[in-house]
Amino acid sequence: MSALVQYEEARVAVSQCVRVDEAAVIRDKAAKLAAYARMRDDVEMEVWLSEIKSRACIRIGEISRELEKANPGPAPKDSSQRWEVSSKAVALADAGISTSTAHRYEQLAGGHEVNGIAAAAVATDKYFAEARATKTPSTMQGLKAAVDRAVDDAMGGSPPKRSKPAEPSKLYRDWLEWANAVMTIANKTDVELNELAEQSRKSGLLSRDLEASEHAAARLRDWVSTLQSEFEKEGADT
After folding, report:
1. In this structure, are 148 and 52 located in the same domain?
2. In this structure, how many other beta carbons lie within 10 angstroms of the beta carbon of residue 135?
3. 3-state DSSP: the chain helix, strand, coil percent, rounded to 5?
4. Which of 102, 119, 140, 209 makes a 20 to 30 Å CA pair with 224?
5. Residue 66: other Cβ atoms inside 10 A
6. Do 29 and 90 share a domain, yes or no?
């Protein structure tokens, strides 16, 4: 009964937090006590302390979501007056919480859409009820998975996966290779061609390259003729 009373008191304390640092204190204290309970093999205590820690994380996300991201107001003319700053970043920094951690906690709280927030609340209570029933300490990973599923369902499901693009046909690959080779040759300067010819000689491949080039030249003439024919057809169609 004593543990149950402490659990309920802790839940109320978490729900009543209005500042990030208040919820952060409860989160850290619950985490330390849960670790201590685990060392003592006190499963029941570890279960509810793990839940309190997770609820504190969610509460941080709720508060963070509600904080305005406005820039600080103008500095007071009187230097003796305090410059009030209410920005979200400063509030998180004061509590020792990074913006990335706050974002994760906001996702645990259901994000920013009304449907997602409502779905997350239901999924959270269900997850914790199952954890208590099975005497299994809650984890951030388990809670996140439960909330993500619920939010996805509430928001109409996850976006459809992109289908794997079809492999290009062999004909397309051959055309691409051929077109690139033609463009490479067309863009070579006389100096570069002389250097390539010299490289053929140095490599002992001059005879092979000459024979292949003569054959390629004949094929290029055929290619030019074919392209001209297609060009004439395109002009007739338009």
Report:
1. yes
2. 10
3. 75, 0, 25
4. 209
5. 11
6. yes
Radius of gyration (C-alpha) of the chain in whole angstroms: 35
- Same domain, residue pair 145 and 191: no
Q: Residue 109's CB: how many other CB atoms inside 10 A?
A: 24
What's the one-letter identity of residue 106?
A: E
pLDDT of residue 42 exceeding 60, the answer is yes
Tell me phi and psi for residue 139, to 5 degrees: -130, 155
DSSP 109: T
Of 154, 178, 206, the residue at which a domain comes to its end is 154
Q: What is the pLDDT of residues 95-136, one digit of tens each?
A: 889 889 999 999 999 998 899 999 999 999 999 999 999 999
Q: How many domains does the chain have?
A: 2
For 81, the token pair is 């007056």
Q: pTM of the predicted model, to two decimals?
A: 0.59
DSSP string, 36-89: HHHHTT-HHHHHHHHHHHHHHHHHHHHHHHHS--PPP-PPPSSTTS------HH
| pLDDT higher than threshold 50 for residue 70 | no
pLDDT given for residue 1 in this prediction = 46
The pair of structure tokens assigned to 92 is: 């998180």
The C-alpha atoms of residue 218 and residue 11 are separated, in whole angstroms, by: 85
If one counts every other C-beta atom within 10 angstroms of the C-beta of residue 193, the result is 11
Domain that holds residue 111: 2-71+85-154
- Evaluate whether 131 touches 51 at the Cβ level (below 8 Å): yes
Measured at the CA of 37, the angle between CA 33 and CA 40, to 5 degrees, comes to 140
Residue 174 — pLDDT band, cuts 50, 70, 90? confident
Q: How many CB atoms lie within 10 A of CB 165?
A: 6
> Is 52 exposed, middle or buried (CB count within 10 Å of its CB: 0-12, 13-18, 19+)?
buried
